[in-house]
Structures are given as C-alpha cells and as structure tokens.
Amino acid sequence: MILQKRRVVAGAILYPVGDALGALLTGSFTWGRFLGLSLVGASLYAWEVPLAFSIISGLSEERPLRKLLLALLYFNPLWIARHLFFLRLFSGQALLASGLLAASLSSFLISLPLSAVGNYVVQNKLPLSHRFLGSATFSGIMALYYAVMARLLGGIHG
Q1: How many CB atoms are closer than 10 A to CB 11?
Q2: Which of 26-30, 52-56, 60-64, 92-96 has the least mean pLDDT?
Q3: Is there a domain that residue 109 lies in?
Q4: Tens digits of per-residue pLDDT, 27-51?
Q5: Which of 79, 88, 96, 131 is most buried (most C-beta within 10 Å)?
Q6: Alpha-carbon distance 4 to 85, whole Å?
Q7: Span 114-131, average pLDDT
Q8: Domain range for residue 25?
C-alpha cells in the first residue's frame, strides 16, 4: 500500500494534536514529542494502519463483529507499548522503562469498552477510504481519555 497525501497530512496532524491535548492535561507536553509523533503519524501509522484495515476488511467483509475483533487484535497491548515507546523516545524519557508492557496491558484493558465502541464505528460505519481518518481522530479522543484517567487515577499513560 502506497502512502497517500491525505493520509500523510491526517497522520501528521491528528496524532500529535490529540496527544498534545492529553499531554497538556498531564503536564507532559514537549515539542519534541509533538514533532516526533507527527513524523510517526505521517509515515509509519499512515502506511501501517490503512494496510491493517484493508486486511481486516478483506478477512471479514460483511461480518461486523469479526471486523471489531480483528481491529482489537491489531491495536493490542504490544501496539500500545510501541506507541508509548515512541512517546518516551520523543519526550527524552528512559526508553526501557520498567512497566511499559504492564502499562500497555492496563491501558488496553481499562479502555476496552470505549475502544470496542470506537473501533466498531470505525470498522463498520466508515467506508474503508475514511477509516484511517476516523481511527486517527479516535486515537486523539483516546489520548484525552488516557489523560483524564491519569489525572483521576494517578497515571497510566506516557
């Protein structure tokens, strides 16, 4: 799958803006994090996420529950750990922080009800051509969710 300009632009804007809003709530905003996540959103995520969604669609064309389960399988705790690794990298934090996988698993489990709803909508209500935009927007909403949860519960996110 080739990078499309609109996905590159969406990834460069939506991922870092959603994260920045959440980071501002938790006092963890840095320009390095913003610019680094913009780079990841415009490259890796703009290529990988649409490819995964295309595969999911091909495996479960008219099966909404299967689409949801495959999306949840894709956005698993290891995917979250990689994302948190990027946040740490671009924030200048220790890269091999203990507890990164545990935090990723906790984040996955705590957000599972909201993630299930969001991923159901993205996978089943949006055409394939708009799923990356929907997913990146939902990711921004989740960044805010994690920030609010961090404020209320003492921190589970980057």
Answers
A1: 30
A2: 92-96
A3: yes
A4: 999 999 999 999 999 999 999 999 9
A5: 131
A6: 26
A7: 96
A8: 5-153
Say if 158 falls within a structural domain. Answer: no
- Number of residues in the chain: 158
Distances from the Cα of 24 to the Cαs of 10, 36, 77, 92, 102, in angstroms? 21, 16, 24, 16, 24
Minimal CA–CA distance to 134: which of 70, 53, 66? 53
Kindly report the backbone phi and psi dihedral angles of residue 93, in degrees, each rounded to the nearest multiple of 5, phi listed first.
Answer: -90, 170
Contact 11, 46 (CB under 8 A): yes
Count the domains in the chain.
1
Burial of 73: CB neighbours in 10 Å, binned 0-12, 13-18, 19+ = exposed
**Contact 12/47 with Cβ under 8 angstroms?**
no
* Phi, psi values for residue 31, rounded to 5°: -70, -30
